[in-house]
Amino acid sequence: MLSKYILQTVEISKKYGKSYTIDHINLNIKQGDIYGIIGLNGAGKSTLIRLITGLTYPTAGKIELFSSFNEQELHVARQRIGALIESPALFPNMTAQQNLEVIRIQRGIPGNQCIHKMLEKVGLTDTGKKKVKAFSLGMKQRLGIAVAMLHDPEFLILDEPINGLDPMGVIEIRQLLKQLNEEYGITILISSHILSEVHQIATHYGFIHHGKLIEEISAKYLDEKCQAHFLIGVDDHHKAVTVLENELNTTDYEVMPDGNIKLFSHYMKEIIS
């Protein structure tokens, strides 16, 4: 049985003047995915996220969110989203708990049990009376994620959450996102201009360039595509495969549609040595 789609966009576009910032994008995110949108600065990642979250409206195309697609239904469906776009808006002279209390009241969330629960989820229960202005950038990002998740969303959208963090901060955010996905079943959409920043956590990718979605692939396929290999040109791939299996005792190869063969890294080392 196929996984349920959390989000699909159909030919969605955003035009400013004569230029397309988002140009007929078809995005597909399934329940349980950690989906990385990868693109250079200015490629359209933030605009796409703003379209999904309803902060701006498409010039053309359709957004389907939790199987809802008309404006009234989308408004309700977006209540199931948590989003952190650009830097988190926090009160620097308040503690983490006080920041979440303000957000809880603003959103009309009953009871304050959600605050301790969320601080525990993001690993900030031990901050006590420490004010946010004394937090590291990684701690502020984690608190921003707690703000985005205070109402227990099913779908978390993060715009460049790792940007500017030191290596330890990057590791903290990665671990947090993996935990939220694996332990709590939250589907995550995360944007970045650096593939390596999300490579260790993403299950699927969409590559965006000049407002266009160039390719949508799984992490498994990306790893296979990027794996080091020899590309061997052969006249008869059937004979070549026999030689590889009998002489090198390997099946770590792939016959390409044109009949040539990819021999992967482990056996490259054996040949070189």
Report the top-level CATH class of the largest domain. Answer: Alpha Beta
Quaternary class: single chain
Ranges with pLDDT <50 over ≥5 residues?
267-273
H/E order of the elements? EEEEHEHEHHHEHEHEEHEHEEH
Q: How many distinct domains?
A: 2
Q: Identify the overall geometry.
A: globular
**Overall mean confidence score, pLDDT:** 88
- Strand sequence of the main sheet, in spatial order? 6-7-8-4-9-10
Key phrases:
4-stranded antiparallel sheet, Rossmann fold, 273 residues, single chain, alpha/beta
Describe this structure in words.
- This protein is of the alpha/beta class.
- It has two domains: 5-218, P-loop containing nucleotide triphosphate hydrolases (Rossmann fold); 227-272.
- The chain is 36% helix and 26% strand.
- The protein has ten helices and 13 strands.
- A six-stranded mixed β-sheet has the order 6-7-8-4-9-10, with helices on both faces. Strands 1, 2, 3 and 5 form a four-stranded antiparallel β-sheet that branches. A three-stranded antiparallel β-sheet has the order 11-13-12.
- Helix 6 (167-184) links the parallel strand 7 (155-159) and strand 8.
- Helix 5 packs parallel to helix 6 (167-184).
- The longest helix is centred in the middle third of the chain and has 18 residues, at 167-184.
- It starts with a strand and ends with a helix.
